[in-house]
Specification:
37% strand
């Protein structure tokens, strides 16, 4: 049996950086999903292996907490493991380290095994009881677990957009990270010059499909914390909470 914890290295290339030469936050999200994909593929429960059962993995929740960001041409290492395999949910954790093996962040995610025909959850314990063999507490994930994200009750949206072909993933709905990209686009660029995202929590409530018209509503919780509610026809399909912190200078 493969080791329970997987470790994957990602070099931060120029295309993955923001205007401060740091890895862009949505790219971190993509690295997290790629690490999950690599880990599951190596252990025979990846997307291609489970497609024969007419099942696919769907991301339900994601929390990413960053203490430091990697810069261009640096290497970000992501370790990932399964913390819990429940009846309908699999909880996966992540730890980020830099070139010097310093911990720079953690993440948590919840995944649903979905029947591709019925679009309903599959009982993981019956479908793949072997997943329990990969559950481990070998590494701690010390960040807070997911909290309820309340809806935003505002009349005027901060931003509107229509889901395009480039927003759609292999499950034929809007890509999970695209929601994050659009959510951070509601903020003015000046905020990115002063602060960095310390933590983002996101919950996916319904599918966004191509040509759907979405509206994003923003609410200030405190000076550095905001709620973003993505709605389709007045109903929330995704909500996130974003907490910012002061932008530290780059160490030479």
């Amino acid at each position: 049996m493969k080791e329970k914890v997987g470790s994957y290295k990602f070099t931060i290339r120029a295309f993955a950086c923001d205007f401060d030469d740091r890895v862009a936050f949505p790219v971190i999200g993509n690295f997290v999903l790629e690490a999950a994909s690599l880990h599951s593929n190596e252990r025979n429960f990846g997307r291609k292996q489970i497609s024969k059962d007419k099942v696919t993995w769907v991301l339900s929740r994601l929390s990413i907490e960053m203490y430091e960001y990697s810069f261009c041409e640096e290497v970000l290492t992501i370790q990932t493991w399964i913390e819990k395999a429940d009846r309908f949910f699999m909880e996966r954790c992540y730890r980020f380290t830099d070139n010097n093996d310093k911990v720079t962040g953690y993440a948590r995610s919840i995944w649903i095994a979905m029947d591709t025909k019925t679009r309903r959850p599959v009982d993981i314990r019956q479908w793949r009881p072997d997943l329990a063999d990969y559950v481990t507490d070998e590494i701690a994930c010390p960040i807070e677990k997911y909290a309820i994200i309340l809806p935003v009750n505002k009349v005027e949206p901060e931003m509107r957009f229509k889901i395009r072909n480039s927003d759609i993933d292999f499950n034929r709905h809007m890509n999970s990270i695209k929601y994050i990209e659009h959510a951070i686009n509601v903020f003015d660029l000046s905020l990115f010059r002063e602060k960095i995202i310390h933590r983002l929590d996101i919950v996916y409530l319904a599918e966004g499909l191509v040509k759907d018209k979405l509206e994003l509503y923003k609410e200030d919780v405190s000076e550095d914390e905001y709620l973003i509610d993505t709605k389709k026809e007045g109903k929330s399909i995704c909500r996130c909470r974003i907490a910012w912190t002061s932008n530290p200078p780059k160490v030479a």
